[in-house]
Write a structure and sequence with these properties.
alpha+beta, six-stranded antiparallel β-sheet
């Protein structure tokens, strides 16, 4: 089980590495800025978009190369959780992290908005 020695989770779950792009309910949607050193060295589609729940300090990464193309949940002092199916995400998040993520439809919309352009760039290679 990951333990955090600092007030913030380790990368890639540290929300300070990303910039806020929108909000969905209690969740802040964040992504690496285009000039972030890690993003400059990653292939398109590898860096994950993050949903950060500041009150519960829970990080949810949307599927990307860095997450093994699964939804990845993290909070200090709790085991990581990976979920392949967006329809199962709410149950895992509630049971293991005490939060409800945005609805599957909202998450799909975020993926279309922030992840689909990168996935299309990978396919075009």
């Amino acid at each position: 089980m990951p333990n955090c020695n600092e007030p913030w989770p380790p990368p890639p779950h540290d929300p300070r590495e990303r910039v806020e792009v929108t909000r969905v309910g209690a969740w802040i949607v964040r992504q690496l800025p285009p000039t972030h050193p890690r993003r400059l060295h990653m292939p398109p589609g590898f860096a994950a978009v993050q949903l950060w729940h500041p009150a519960r300090r829970v990080s949810l990464l949307l599927p990307a190369g860095i997450t093994g193309h699964a939804y990845e949940l993290f909070a200090c002092g709790r085991p990581y959780a990976w979920v392949k199916d967006v329809d199962q995400l709410a149950a895992v998040a509630a049971r293991g992290f005490g939060v409800l993520p945005p609805s599957p439809d909202q998450i799909r919309a975020l993926q279309r908005m922030f992840c689909a352009p990168r996935a299309a760039a990978v396919e075009a290679r």
